[in-house]
Structure formats: C-alpha cells, structure tokens
Amino acid sequence: MTDLNQEIESLRRELEEKKKEIRSLEKLVRGAIDRDFPLEVGEFSERELEDYFRDAVSPLKQVLDPRPGPKSVRSHRKIIGAPIVFLKRLFLRLSGFYTHLLLDEQVQFNRRSAELTEALVTRVRHYRDRLEQAEEKVAAFEESLVILKNKLEDLRSRLAAETGGRDNPSTR
Amino acid sequence: MTSCPNDELLRRLKAREIAADDSVRELSREVEAAERSAGVQAAYNCVRRMQAALGFRKPTLAIYDHAFHMIGGAQKYGLTMAAALRDLFDITILANRAVRLDNFRDWYGLDLSGCEVRVVGIPFFEERSAFHIDPALITRKVENPFHCISLASGDYDVFVNNSMNEMVYPLANISVLVCHFPERRRRSYFYADRYTFTVTNSLYTAGWVEAKWKYRPDLQIYPPVDIDGAKTRRPKKNVILSVARFEPEGTKRQREMAQAFLKLGRDWPEVVDGWKLVLAGGSSPDNCYLTELERLTAGWPKGKIEIKVNIPLSELESLYRESALFWHLCGLTHDDPSEIEHFGMSTVEAMQSGLVPLVYDGGGLREIVDHGVNGFRVRSTAELLDGTIRLIRDPGLRSRLAGAATEKAQLYTRARFEERARTFFGGLLKQYTL
C-alpha cells in the first residue's frame, strides 16, 4: 500500500501544479459556470420594488431618443477608418430628414412613457407614505382600546368581588 | 458527490483485491478519464477521495465565512460546527481578514485548537479598505471577486460555505452551503444550487430558499444557544427586557416598544407601577436611531426605561437572570422577509433564562414560541400590551409560561446542535470514504 500511497501522492502533486497554472474556474471545471436569470419582479417585496424603481426609472430618460447623430459614428481602424466614418456620416446627413420624420413620434412616445412611469412611481410613494401614517394612527387607537378593555375587565372583576358576583352583568 | 473513482473500484482497492501494479494502472485510467470529461479539478478531487478513502490521510474540511473577523451569530454557528467536527476532519478556517483562534475562544467560548486558519484576501475589498465585506456590492458589471475563495475551496475534501454569500463556486468533492437567509435573489454569479447540500438555520429560512432560489434545501439545523445565566436562577424582578442590536434603520423596533410602554404608563400607571423596560443591544458609534430613542425616553421618570448599549456579556447574563418578560418585535410592519427575524437567538436565550417571551408573530420566531403555551406571539403593539397586561396581572400564568418556555428552549442547546452536525457530516464521510 505504501507504493500506492506514493503513486497517488505524486499524481496529486502533478494535478496540483496543473491547477495552479489554470486560474480560470471555467477551465478548471471544463464548462460554463455563469447563467442568466429572469428578473422576478412579480415576487418582489416593498423594499426590492423600491430599489428596482430607483435603478430602473432614471435610466429610462437616458434612452428616450434613439435617433442616430453624425457624432455617434466612430471607427477604431487606423487607415480606412476615416473614409468609412466620412461616408457613414454623409449618409446619415442625407437620410436624416426621413429617419427623423419616422422616429419623431417614437421619441415623443418614449418621453411620455418615461414621464408617466415617473408620475406613477411618485404616486405610489405618496400612497405608501399616507398608508404608513394611517397604520401608525390605527396602531395608536388599537393600543388605547386594549388598555380600555383591560381597565374595564379589571373594574368588572373588582365589582364582582365586592358584590359577590351579584352585580356582574355576565352572571345575569 | 464525486463519482470518481467509482465506488466498486474503491471497494476493491480497500479490500486489497487488486495487485499493486494493477491498482496504479486502474487509478491512473480513472483520473485521466475524469480530467478529460470534467477538467483538472475533477481529476484532483478523484485523487483526494482515494487518499481519504484508503486511509492515507485524514479527510479535510474548510469552513468559510467572509465575516469571521467580526462577532456575529452566524459566525458562532459555523465555528461551533467546526469545533464539533474536529475529530472527524482536519479543519481549516477560511477567512478574508486576519483572525486568531484565541479570538474565537474570547468571543464565543469555543476551543478550536488544532484547526488551521487560512486567510485569503480579496483584492476588490482590500483596495477599498473595507472592514465589512459586503457581497451586495457585487454586480455583473465587475468581475466576481470571490473567485479566489472558489479556487481555495478546491483544496479540500469538504467545503462549507457559512457566509450569506452565494457567489462562491464550490470546487471541493463535497460542498455544503449553510444558509442563514437568502439575502439576494438569483442574479449574477449565483451558485447556491451548485452545492452538494444546503443546510438552513430555520424552517423560515428554508421556505425562503425555496421561494427565492427555486430549490429545496436538504437539512435544517437550529443554531446553538447556551446562555450561562440560565444555570443560576435568581428571583425575578419586575423587568421587561428586550435584547437586539440598535440598527440605524430601526428594524428591531425598539422605538415602537418604548412608545407602547410609555403609553401604558401614561394611560394606566397603576398596572406598570414598579415595572421597567430595559432595551439592551449593540450599536455602532454615531447611531442616529439610538440618539432619537434616548430623546424619546428622556422626559420620563428615571429608571422607567433604561437603554443599555454594548454592555459586557456578564451584565447581559445578569439582566436575563433578573428579568421576567421578554419583548421582541423585529419584523413588525415589515414586508421584506430579510427584515424579519430569521431565527431569534436572543429569544431562545431569554426562554432558557426563564423569561416569558412576547414576540412578533413572524419569521423564525413562530418556530420558537408557541402562542399561549410558552409565550405570546403578537401582530401589533396593541397585542403586545394586551399580553403584557395579562402577564403582569396574573403571576400564575407568568410562572406557568416561563416554565414551559425554559423547557422548549432546550431544543436549541449547543449539545443538540453538535449532535445534528456530527450525524450529518458523519453520514457524508461514511459515503465518501466507503
């Protein structure tokens, strides 16, 4: 068994060396490890929704206008880059009138949608604040009621003790 | 669990049914096949299993927590588990910040001698000089900084991830995720379901693992709770105790408890005459919530409400010994499951010390307190006051519930925890080494 032990140990060392050389998890396990998951918005709690609103509403305004401008055309190619960019920009200028005509309505719709979303989120926040205030008031009333109920029970039992149960309404 | 080397071959090797030369040849073939089909890590795991199964060395177990350098209930859970498994495994405590075994003795009274501490720094957090390593900061926009821990996990037979961090990909032969609560939903770098087993600290947590992560955990082990104060009983005083951290967000609901007590004192002073409320807990410096709480209680007669911040353990034990009732409202008016008590260690400590618990009816507290049997579960401050008035005015009921609470709390002792952990890991080891 000693030989076997040594053989296995040398095998382990050899593999350990190989492991050290490979620092990527995907290569180590020979397969992809990351996956995409759907956003389960329908299952979100109040706090998760609030975080979602914060992260999702403001970026909406940044993508309102999908119309390409000449400056959006760039190239990283050294020699042929400049003429390609020139031609593309020229094409954009020439076709700009038509594309803008088509996309104007889309931009307007996007803007209104973003405004509406923001307004709805604001209204939800207002309602939530008012609901919290109402809950606090209800809680205070409930506390008062509980104290009154216990006071009443206390009075009843004292009265019953004093009268020997004769005046206790529950025994009538 | 790994299928390499195959169980049949391993059994024959153990029984020495194969000649030495043939053994080496067969094993090499198995390892090569594993490498070809599943990569170097699978081959390495195959070799490690052979060594452990053939008795050439003791199996190894690494337990990881990104917060081992801080005091916490979850960390106590993992380290108590490690202490219980010392004779089964060679144990390594895998941390991200320097920490000594002496720290664990001082913080939790745990003897971990013989265990090794391995510190793997995470450059992402070190560059930011962050004391607290917060996995919530990691999105798909940055490279997963926990991959260095994933790589380290592949050096052991068993890897236990005790942190609330599902972004560590397990590479060991057997991997166990101890989940104290699924804080985040499935998103970038989610690997919780890649672990061989998932263990939860309560049924409440188990339910949320299923709801958020879409798979069923394998086992549930309640945390170990043993409060020293419970061993020496003293006559109870008219004290209502609450023990919880003063969270700046107010999630532990100390303000609501103080307000309710003050209201009772104002509307019906005779009933709480001679009673006081003590709010004890830890706090970070410059805590606005604590300042507000102190201001709220300042106008009332001295001693009616006491706030005790960062008190030593001996003082806390003394408070447990002397107090009669225990309030805990964490979760009240919250709808986010992470803000509701996942288990409730302080409630168990109180019950072990003979206090009658009045706790929020939600989260892990539902598993601990049986309404009307060993305490009261409440859904509002009104119900809290109702139960409190009943208990103050009926010492017989108080004594009966306190007795039942002490009895129920025995389900959560350290001895029980260790027994469950040893049974589970012992079973795994048996399968692993045949």
DSSP strand content of chain A: under 5%
CATH class division of the largest domain in chain B: Alpha Beta
Summarize the biggest pleated sheet of chain A.
none
Runs of chain B with pLDDT <50, length 5+?
A: none
Number of distinct beta strands of chain A: 0
Biggest interface goes to: A-B, 45 and 60 residues
Please give the radius of gyration of chain B in angstroms: 25 Å
The tally of helices of chain B reads 16
Percentage of residues in strands of chain B: 5-15%
Q: List SSEs of chain B in N-to-C order.
A: HHHEHEHEHHEEEHEEHEHEHEHEHEHHH
Number of strands of chain B: 13
CATH topology of the largest domain in chain B: Rossmann fold
- Side by side, the strands of the main sheet of chain B go 3-2-1-4-5-6-7
Question: Could you describe the 3D structure shown?
Answer:
- The complex is a heterodimer of chains A (about 170) and B (about 425).
- Chain A is mainly α and about 170 residues long.
- Chain A has 2 domains: about 1-35; about 45-135.
- Chain A has helices at about 1-20, 25-30, 45-60, 80-165.
- The radius of gyration of chain A is 36 Å and the shape is flat.
- The N and C termini of chain A lie far apart (about 95 Å).
- Chain B is of the alpha/beta class and about 425 residues long.
- Chain B has 3 domains: about 5-55, no CATH class; about 60-225 and about 415-434, Glycogen Phosphorylase B (Rossmann fold); about 230-410, Glycogen Phosphorylase B (Rossmann fold, 3-Layer(aba) Sandwich), CATH 3.40.50.2000.
- Helices cover about 40% and strands about 15% of the residues of chain B.
- Chain B has 16 helices and 13 strands.
- Chain B has helices spanning about 5-15, 20-40, 40-55, 75-85, 100-110, 125, 145-155, 205-215, 255-265, 290-300, 315-320, 345-350, 365-370, 380-395, 395-410, 415-434; strands at about 60-65, 90-95, 115-120, 160, 175-180, 195-200, 220, 240-245, 275-280, 305-310, 325-330, 355-360, 375-380.
- The model of chain B has no long low-confidence stretch (mean pLDDT about 90).
